[in-house]
Write a structure and sequence with these properties.
The complex is a heterodimer of chains A (487) and B (448).
Chain A (H helix, E strand, L loop, with lengths): L44 H12 L22 H7 L2 H4 L11 H18 L3 E3 L5 H18 L7 E5 L5 H8 L3 E5 L9 H7 L4 E6 L12 H10 L3 E6 L18 E4 L1 H4 L14 E3 L11 E7 L2 E7 L18 H39 L3 E2 L10 E4 L1 H7 L3 H10 L6 E2 L8 E4 L7 H20 L18 H6 L9
Parallel strand pairs in A: 2-3, 2-4, 4-5, 5-6
Antiparallel strand pairs in A: 1-7, 6-7, 8-9, 10-11, 11-13, 12-13
Chain B lengths: L7 H11 L29 H15 L3 E2 L12 H7 L2 H4 L11 H18 L3 E2 L6 H15 L7 E4 L5 H11 L5 E4 L22 E6 L9 H10 L3 E6 L20 E5 L15 E5 L12 E5 L5 E5 L6 H4 L12 H38 L4 E3 L8 E6 L3 H10 L2 E2 L2 E2 L1 H4 L3 E5 L6 H15 L1
Parallel strand pairs in B: 1-13, 3-4, 3-5, 5-6, 6-7
Antiparallel strand pairs in B: 2-8, 7-8, 9-10, 11-12, 12-15, 14-15
Helix pairs in contact in B: 3-10, 5-10, 6-7, 10-13
Classes of the chains: A alpha/beta (487), B alpha/beta (448).
Chain lengths: 487, 448
């Protein structure tokens, strides 16, 4: 660990260029004022710059390493998206500024809504959800509002496959629904008989990811959609894996009623060390009246096109507001720039090359002796390797391989998710990685396995080359140290 | 193919390895009748130069007006170093620190953030952030219900000065879990809680107060905190982090202090950017930590006994607990928290206090100037921090439109909130005396 910025502090030191010139003491009565002295760093500007620059160097990132984290779509984040979203007029625009001083921004937002409608095949888009999980919340809330509006008050069951992201059941629970989990069949598709068994008059809807978190396309999606609709339920599309199908097949055409997109995955806005996300939702005609507000509308005023906010009075049945203003606007601008740079045919190539990379990597790892969780299936943009045999025969676990990869300068794939495949690595290379990078990763995987097999190397204490060794998670949870206290 | 590296030779070799003839073959599991050929609604690709030209034109349409709006988002000077460092690829393009050993930069930054925000709010523990201030209220209310199991009403009482949008957002997110939100009575002279009208009958699970309030007043937070605790309610404080360099911290309100403090982190080095991305902060007393939503970073040791950082208390979270998680929240607002941590480090307590004092002085000059205009007066008596409500003798919207034509954004139209023609104005340290005087004379002209 680097010294904390607090430990580098010296009483009286400051970044003197940063504070405004001193003003008089405020005319605020004493009883409102603070009398204690909160401990914040006292450091020079260079010390702060050097401290955080050095901290940054202790991270793996897309810009520095291959980052095949399954289900997270860690592709290159183009620099232009960031630079243009931070143009001073955009960065400095107050969220409650009048539309007279926002036509540029609003034009971008309107066009983004239109493009997202097209790539998802939906009839309406609201950009306001601030992350995928919030988009899920919006989606389930809309499904509930739809049933309520029809006087169908007893539909409160949400069906979720066992392969789903944890956010799916957690969201359904937050919306006051009961979660019905259904199993996956041996080939990765939904167990249709199990689905049939849970459908009924209590069914509010089903939450699906397609391609699923198992890295395969749900081949019976049309049957699933018909069954759920026939039972009176609606279909929710978790857009975590939208990158795999851009321009190839659209959730709307698969008969989904509502979808959230992860703009930080598919449309390459930054993951930022864990956020900001951005979870725009798309809906079909049925759910249009319930969309979260605000959304951007376009009208004609004296022959001139004017963009403005549509809110409560335009959407009286809306599920409401989800953010203080209109969601992660700056992220939306980045997504807009990205989509414009990629363009119509580029969208399809994203899906094509993400799929090519995943299938290539899958074939190479299979040929090198790694076991695939679904060997009979095409990979979508990701796939699963299982180490269940290696774990049994030589105690080589998914965790061990993950840590061994770090020492070879690769970020680990997603481990131990989805929960139904034991000792799994969920691997998503994305379309922005070159063949050489993939080959390098395969070589590292082969070497890790070979050393374990032939040389008896175990990786229980790996990694060795990171800034820290394997960390004590149990101690972290038992002896909580969540904020600095000087000795 | 702007960001795809494959040469034709690469593609052919890769297809041969897979054992298919074309990329199209890789999509053969998708039913043919579902497939589409092209996207009509996406325009042709633009080069970086072309899109840069377009975006600069769009940015010019929005301009750079002189802005006196606050109402939950505040214009402060952001040191150049903040975003220079926050957008380094190692921060910008990393993800949630699942692999702790390869994410010590992000983890230590969040730990330092937690250390700073607990100091500012005077509470024990912080999470790694939430989406924004408004959604943080929803999470805090849900957390109060989990924490305060003695009270089963689901009733959350809000002080009259709580931002009305925060209430709307909390109701959208938490409403379906049996929570109801009601307002405490308002004293029309001060805009604050009317203590003499408080009823004894209510049995709230939580009481929420915002300091400074949405219309800019300062509440008697000590008295309200004690009242809430006497009723066995959790006290949630909504605070502006910059104000905390001057104002009493939530952890010190009343006899026992607030239980949970939340707020909008944007003033700490995050650009206004049309409303986001910002971050919501949340701190609480140690005893409530296991009911907190969101990521939390802890300091621990590695195999060599050396200190290091990791995500902790993950058993609260959706990826482990699924249906029983404390929240469905997955990401926090990591990039914004990184910026805020750099901001707080650069300014330190003295710097943030100077920003707070300077903002207060700017707003005082503005309020005094505007109240010199015939037809403008204070709406509420009492002190304010860097935002104040004014009562006008005529409708506000036309005045704001006339000011906007002069490239001045004159404030937030408070008429709907206050029930009378009213304007909420804010001037931070970014406004010079000349800026403020220009606004005052513009409004005088518009109202003449």
């Amino acid at each position: 660990m680097s010294e904390l910025i607090f430990e580098k502090s010296r009483s009286g030191r400051r970044a003197f260029a940063q504070a405004p010139s001193e003003a008089a003491a405020p005319a605020i009565p004493k009883r409102f004022l603070r009398t204690d002295t909160p401990r914040l760093p006292e450091a020079s500007e260079l010390q702060v710059v050097r401290h955080f620059t050095r901290l940054s160097q202790k991270n793996f990132s897309i810009d520095t390493q291959f980052y095949p984290l399954g289900s997270c779509t860690m592709k290159y984040n183009p620099r232009a998206c960031n630079a243009l979203a931070l143009l001073p007029e955009f960065a400095g625009r107050h969220p409650l500024g009048p539309v007279s001083h926002g036509q540029g921004f609003l034009t971008c937002m309107y066009e983004l809504q239109e493009m997202l409608k097209d790539v998802t095949g939906m009839q309406g888009v609201s950009l306001t959800p601030m992350a995928g999980a919030q988009g899920e919340l919006a989606g389930v809330a809309m499904i509930k509002a739809y049933h309520e509006a029809r006087g169908d008050h007893d539909r409160n069951e949400i069906i979720v496959p066992d392969a789903a992201h944890g956010t799916n059941p957690a969201t359904a629970n937050m919306c006051g629904c009961i979660v019905k989990e259904i199993p996956t069949g041996p080939d990765g598709d939904i167990d249709i008989a199990a689905l049939k068994a849970v459908l009924g008059p209590g069914t509010a809807g089903i939450m699906l990811t397609n391609p699923s978190t198992l890295g395969v396309f749900e081949r019976h999606i049309k049957d699933v959609a018909d069954m759920v609709h026939d039972a009176g339920g609606l279909l929710y599309y978790d857009g975590a894996n939208l990158n795999a199908i851009l321009g190839k097949v659209r959730p709307g055409d698969m008969d989904f009623d509502v979808i959230h997109m992860n703009l930080h995955k598919t449309f390459s806005t930054p993951h930022g060390g864990g956020g900001p996300g951005s979870g725009a939702v798309g809906v079909n005609k049925r759910l249009l009246p319930f969309m979260p507000i605000p959304v951007v509308g376009k009208s004609d005023v004296d022959g001139e096109t004017v963009y403005s906010w549509l809110a409560e009075k335009d959407f009286p049945q809306s599920i409401g507001r989800l953010s203080g203003f209109m969601g992660n606007a700056g992220v939306l601008l980045r997504a807009y720039v990205y989509m414009r740079m990629v363009g119509r045919t580029g969208m399809q190539r994203i899906a094509e090359y993400a799929t090519l990379n995943a299938n290539y990597l899958m074939a190479r790892l299979r040929d090198a002796g790694f076991e695939l969780a679904y060997p009979g299936r095409r990979a979508s943009h990701e796939f699963i390797v299982t180490l269940k045999h290696e774990a049994k025969s030589m105690q080589l676990t998914a965790m061990d391989v993950a840590k061994a990869l770090l020492d070879r300068n690769y970020h680990a794939p997603t481990t131990y998710f989805p929960l139904l495949v034991s000792e799994c690595l969920l691997i998503e290379p994305t379309e922005t990685e070159s063949k050489e990078t993939l080959d390098g990763f395969v070589a590292a995987m082969i070497d890790i396995l070979r050393a374990a097999k032939e040389d008896g190397v175990d990786y229980k204490e790996a990694p060795y080359k990171m800034p820290v060794r394997r960390l004590d998670d149990v101690k972290a949870a038992r002896q909580l140290d969540l904020a600095y206290e000087p000795d | 193919m702007p960001f795809i590296p494959h040469t034709e030779k690469d593609t052919q070799e890769m297809l041969a390895t897979i054992g298919v003839d074309s990329i199209e073959d890789l999509f053969d599991e998708i039913p043919a009748k579902l497939r589409i050929d092209s996207l009509r609604g996406v325009p042709d690709a633009q080069s970086e130069m072309e899109i840069s030209r377009l975006m600069r034109q769009r940015a010019e349409m929005d301009g750079s007006p002189l802005c006196f709006i606050g109402a939950g988002a505040y214009e402060h000077h952001i040191p150049a170093a903040v975003w220079d460092i926050a957008t380094r690829g190692e921060f910008y393009s990393a993800y949630t620190p699942y692999q702790a050993e390869a994410s010590q930069g992000t983890l230590q930054t969040i730990y330092e953030y937690q250390s700073m925000i607990t100091q500012l709010t005077g509470l024990d523990v912080s999470n790694a952030s939430l989406y924004d201030g408004a959604s943080a209220l929803a999470e805090a209310a849900l957390m109060a219900v989990r924490t305060n199991r003695r009270v089963k009403t689901g009733l959350v009482l809000l002080a009259p000065g709580v931002n009305p949008v925060y209430e709307q957002v909390a109701a959208s997110i938490a409403g379906s879990q049996g929570l109801t939100f009601e307002r405490l009575p308002v004293d029309s002279a001060s805009g604050n809680v009317a203590f003499e009208q408080l009823r004894d009958g209510d049995d709230p699970v939580a009481v929420v107060v915002q300091q400074p309030s949405f219309p800019g007043t300062l509440e008697d937070v000590d008295r309200l905190t004690d009242w809430a605790h006497a009723k066995n309610a959790i006290l949630i404080g909504i605070v502006n982090p910059v104000s905390l360099a001057l104002l009493k911290a939530p952890g010190h309100w009343g006899e026992q202090g607030a239980d949970i403090a939340i707020g909008e982190g944007q003033p700490l080095g995050v650009p206004m950017s049309s409303g986001g991305p910002y971050f919501g902060f949340m701190t609480c007393k140690q005893i409530h930590v296991r009911q907190m939503p969101g990521r939390i970073v802890g300091r621990t040791t590695d195999l060599d006994g050396k200190p290091g950082f990791a995500l902790t208390l993950q058993a609260r979270e959706q990826h482990i607990r699924r249906t029983k998680a404390t929240s469905n929240i997955c990401t926090n607002q990591g990039l914004m928290v990184t910026a805020a941590t750099i901001y707080m480090s650069l300014l330190g307590l003295d710097g943030i206090a100077a920003v707070a004092r300077s903002s207060h002085a700017s707003t005082t000059r503005l309020v005094d100037g505007l109240c010199g205009i015939n037809g403008v007066q204070r709406l509420y008596e009492g002190p304010y921090f860097h935002e104040a409500a004014l009562k006008l003798d005529r409708p506000v919207a036309p005045l704001l439109a006339a000011l906007a034509e002069r490239d001045i954004l004159g404030g937030f139209d408070l008429t709907g909130f206050a029930g009378t023609d009213a304007l909420l104005v804010c001037a931070t340290e970014t406004k010079s005396a000349a800026d403020i005087d220009a606004y005052v004379s513009a409004l005088a002209e518009v109202m003449a």
